[in-house]
Amino acid sequence: MGAGPSGFYAADGLLRGSSVSGPTLHIDIIDRLPTPFGLVRAGVAPDHQGTKAIVRQFEKLLAQPNVRFRGNLEIGRDKTWDEIIAAYDATIVATGMVLDRKLGVPGEELPHVWGSWRFVAWLNGHPDFRTGPDLGVVKRVAVIGNGNVALDVARLLAKSADEMAKSDIVPEAGAAIAAAPIEAIDIIGRRGPEHASFTNNELAEMGRLSRAVALVDAKALEATAPADDPTPERLRKTKNLDTLRAFAGNTAGAKPIALRFLFHTTPAEIRQGEYDLVVTCIGYGGTELPKGEGVFAVGWARRGPSGTIPTNRADSHAVAQQVLAWLKDRVPRDGVDPLPPGIDAAGWQRIDKAEIAAGAAEGRPRIKLTDWASLLKVAGG
Ligand code: NAP
């Protein structure tokens, strides 16, 4: 359940494991959206096409004879969890986390405060998030959080139209960002730079933006990576500190947008007027998940909202081994097909083709269909 990376990697792990040791599996990869790939489509930043290329591996899985995709199947509307669990020998919950975590401070409900999921889903064309913030009035932006999502949000707001030209950002969002009168973007961390969870390449990228200059107060950088961290973490943090020190040498005003890193700053209240847009990038929550015999969770649904796509590969493969062990001792259920008709891989491929064709006309990887009616119509042929 859930056609994001961890769901596909679970299917991959099952196929790899079963070809060595056992039963012939039939795998249904089910999603509530008409489109597969979860956060790769709706979460990964539209200018990071290299990351999105992972879907080619998932497409190979969809081409396997014993794997089916079924989109537009929603738990609660079309099936209950109990019905799904009863219909399969094993159920893998790969539904991720799609609720923005709350800061819990006064002012958070003001209309200029956006959670990162809602904001990124909008510019990535998620059909449930078709309205973005009114960027026509936005000069000063606060991005709260010191993870890669905060960098994504700040970078996407800072990039020029030229820098976004080869992306698959939703055209209306791209145009709104390009036209916004943004002058300052503050990336706000509640702890010091030695605790930021940025990865090295993503932080370094902030120093290469054509219309924004990365700035940081050198005094905030009198820090070292915590000595008790494991070596890879210490190396990552040390490199980040070096990158930030280079930013500290930049000149304010060198480019139209000031991209400031502010550390040791905990928001106590959000007021009207201080910033024109506040995007909280402080993690995600999920809804209650089913439990029971033969039910396994993977990815963010299992571990919480941390880790990159490769983290989920290892995680899902390990869970797939547990699923195979569970299946080994079971008599398979009878062959009644539990799936109602709906969007299958061919339906998704019609959407994919239409989007790629629309993009080709403009030199973009794709232009996404962003409304349910068009998605369903194109999928239906
Ligand atoms: P993250 O790395 O966990 O960062 C969340 C940030 O929010 C942390 O800096 C955290 O600070 C801060 N925070 C949490 N609660 C807060 C509060 N109440 N007030 C102020 N700050 C608060 O998570 P993420 O950025 O959402 O990313 C999720 C995962 O996706 C990460 O593993 C990330 O690497 C991955 N991702 C990867 C890429 C990429 O590879 N390019 C892009 C996007 C996301 P504390 O540390 O103090 O708790």
Q: What does it look like?
A:
There is one protein chain. The chain is α/β, with parallel strands linked by helices. It folds into 2 domains: 5-98 and 286-343, Rossmann fold (3-Layer(aba) Sandwich), CATH 3.40.50.720; 102-283, 3-Layer(bba) Sandwich (FAD/NAD(P)-binding domain), CATH 3.50.50.60. It is built from 14 helices and 12 strands. The strands form 4 sheets. A 6-stranded parallel sheet has the order 5-10-6-7-9-8. A two-stranded parallel ribbon has the order 1-2. A two-stranded parallel ribbon has the order 3-12. The site of NADP nicotinamide-adenine-dinucleotide phosphate (NAP) has 23 residues, from helix 7.
Q: Could you give the distance between the termini?
A: 25 Å
CATH third-level topology of the largest domain = FAD/NAD(P)-binding domain
SSE succession? HEHHHEHEEEHEHHEHEHEEEEHHHH
Shape: globular
Low-confidence stretches: none
Number of spatially distinct domains = 2
Largest beta-sheet characterization: 6 strands, parallel
Strand segment count: 12
Q: From the helix content, strand content and strand pairing, which structural class follows?
A: alpha/beta
Gyration radius, rounded? 22 Å
Number of helices: 14
CATH class of the largest domain: Alpha Beta
CATH superfamily of the largest domain: FAD/NAD(P)-binding domain
Q: Strands across the major sheet, in which order? A: 5-10-6-7-9-8
Q: Which architecture of the largest domain does the CATH hierarchy give at level 2?
A: 3-Layer(bba) Sandwich
